[in-house]
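ok trying this again, last paste got cut off
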Amino acid sequence: MASTLVEATRSAHEEVERLELLIVQCLEDDDPITSRKDRLIRNHRVRQMIDSITSPPLTDSLILTKIKIKRERKRLRHLEQTCYDQYEALPIIKFTREEDFGRCLDLCALYNQYINSTFRKPIDYSAYLDAFSQTQNIPLKLKSTRQYRKYMENLLEYLMDFFRRIEPLQDVDRIFSKLLVQENNYTDITLMEAKINKLCLLLSKTIEETKQNLVKKQASICKEMERDRMEEEEEEETTQFDNESDGEEQPVVYNPLKLPMGWDGQPIPFWLYKLHGLDQEFKSIEEALALWNILEQRQLRTTGAKILKSLKTDGNIYHKKIYIDLQCQGLV
């Protein structure tokens, strides 16, 4: 029984040491060109390894101290890869779209809570980014309300959660413990305000980047609105031009004889007009029929010399000219 306990204890210590070496390996892989996202994922992976070290019970500070010592050792290349396999999966880090993977704060919900409160000031979101950390500007009589306490609790909860997500290797509780050492006369409200001020100090770069990102978004929205306005104006000008073009009168064609229009939009020649008998007017149907007969006979005479003539001899049909030539030769 004792040997089993000793073996289990030794195995646990070996597992802790392997995890510590893995942590050192991750932290030594700090390439300066590594992206911010990759560095954040690495830190969360290290945080998971630290959390998994439970036996023997070691505090984060002791673990980090041992890591610094082990960094001087060059035994990492001989580490078994199987121990690292369980930590190869990417850790799940949730950020909102506004947070942009930890680059900016997303205080929209807290801003809505602030402007609907009794201690608020009528400010927009950009001004709120400057004012939310300045709790000293709120009158003391308003800080005793339940509404203010609830707002401060939500603000502190969000800032702590955000800080843990972007700085997984930082110990927030240890940071706050220093505040209690410095001042023991904190009330619940003043303690929350002190924690919020401390977090805002640690997140000062992130707050500044949030302000810059908001300015860029507002400028982008203004540019989009200006572009949409210009596109609408261009569409209106195009529509107006088309309407004016449709309303313009077509050029007047010189046609004193009122001749019919041809396919090209011009009057047909006068000779063609007469050829078709379009220059004649008929007062009755009989006159129109008489002209029709005349034109039909003229057409028959014209085509009679060109098409086959019905000259039947021995059952054969010949063209008139060919028939005459054959007849002169005595062939028909």
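PB: full thing came through this time. The first strand starts at residue 312 and ends at 313.
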